[in-house]
Give the backbone structure.
Amino acid sequence: MASKTNAIRIVQQAGIPFREKTYAFDENDLNGNHAALAIGFPPEQVYKTLVAKGNRTGIHIFCIPVCCELDLKKAAKIAGDKDIALVPVKDLLYLTGYIRGGCSPVGMKKKYPTYFEESCQLYDEISVSAGERGHQMILPTMELVTLVNGVLADIIQ
């Protein structure tokens, strides 16, 4: 069994049912498609957590399928900003408490506005990082969205 991360503790405290999957990862290839393959889940159901900063509105979190790309124009619009860009990897730990390849939408240092690609509604459950590399948690989609006060939006290219 994997270690009990902050994200796992929060999900447990909320009483949300979940499963954990761990896998070997390569520090030089933290591609989400690798995670999907490793846990035996379709890439459309494995979500990566991206951190972006708007010029006026600050930090926003975007959760999208690992097989997709964030549409920065759509992201800026939903965030209420003119421009938005992904934050540099070196800033992730400071902003979220997580590192690249282990960033979870659950249990960040601060509560940031969080958006999920609306297609997540097609699935009863999705997988997101459990807060460390090589560790995923699979949980009911809408319970996850509710837990992080997420908003559903069209945010992929």
Remarks:
- The CA atoms of residues 67 and 108 lie 23 Å apart.
- The first strand starts at residue 19 and ends at 22.
